[in-house]
Design a protein that fits this description.
mainly beta; 4-stranded antiparallel sheet; two-stranded antiparallel sheet; signal; GSG-1
Length: about 90
């Protein structure tokens, strides 16, 4: 039993789970629908921070909460569009 617990502790990536606040990236490409996981520009060709469109209702609209879990060997984090996850060792 002790050997099984030791092996499972070393191979799992769920030692620590949680969420972290990450700054949303800028929307890229042609945007036809409203995307909630990126920051929209008022203009598509100019990279100027004064042209970024924010919604100031909650004050947290430029951040997204991403889930993660980590262990000794692996660390996984939810993708920015909230579909799937990206793991690294």
């Amino acid at each position: 039993l002790a050997l099984f617990l030791a092996v499972s502790a070393l191979t799992t990536s769920y030692w620590c789970e949680g969420t972290r606040k990450v700054v949303k990236p800028f929307c890229t490409g042609v945007v036809t629908t409203r995307q909630s996981f990126c920051i929209m520009f008022n203009s598509s060709n100019i990279n100027d921070t004064r042209l970024v469109q924010y919604i100031w209702e909650t004050g947290e609209d430029k951040y997204v909460m991403r889930k993660f879990h980590t262990g000794i060997w692996f660390s996984c984090e939810q993708n920015i569009n909230m579909t799937g996850e990206k793991c690294r060792s």
